[in-house]
Amino acid sequence: MVQIKKIARRTFLVGATAIAGGVVFGTYRYLKPYANPLEADLHKDEAAITPFFKIDKTGVTLITPHADVGQGAYSIQAYLLAEELDVDPLAVQLDPGKSAPAYYNAALLREFTPFAATDKSWLAESVRDFTAIPSKLVAMQMTGGSSTVPDSYEKLRMAAATARETLKETVARDSGIPRNLLSTENGNVVLPDGSKRLYSELAPLVMNIEPVSDVPLRPKSEWKYLGNDLERTDTVAKSTGVQNYAIDLKMDGMVYATV
Q1: What span, in angstroms and rounded, lies between the C-alpha atoms of 208 and 233?
Q2: HSE-up of residue 181 (Cα within 13 Å, Cβ side)
């Protein structure tokens, strides 16, 4: 019900914006998805079903576009993707990817609305949801303001769920077994007889399949990672002194100052 209300608010706001300003093209731009930036550099044996997921013969790469300088942003993004994709976030590769409009931050402006964080009224939530519209139109990709989780919570899970169901559809067409009889587990599509097809093996086939739409997210009762005590993906790096923090960043022409 909460999700339905959220969608209803956003639909109302997009429509109201178009009517009040007469900017039908702006509404079209908001509803139109950005191009998948991963497709530009793909080889014939690689696949990128969504902008947040890439597979090749070496395995799975999760794209985590919110920057991480020690605060754990990569870790939570990896777990959000892994929850729906059925991969081990500690075993797959993590890559922040390249800057691209597809990675716009829909939640960054929410904290600049004139409402207390505890205000959950319809008006407050509607105005917060509205901020996603200008964020997308200007393709604002940014990390900050504790916006990583609010921005990624549904976005990354939906991207991973879409990839999961598309991989299952690929196996369904290849094997003749209906998709609803297939499952996924640890980077594999599992057939009814227990045999498995690695995601990495499906890369040459999956790019010929239109991504599956209208994919439901898994209910909280089926979560494997979220809501549990978990090892962060950067634990080893931090424990062995190789983690890069903000103070470790260096750029050409960089100068130093103290306050």
Answers
A1: 32
A2: 12
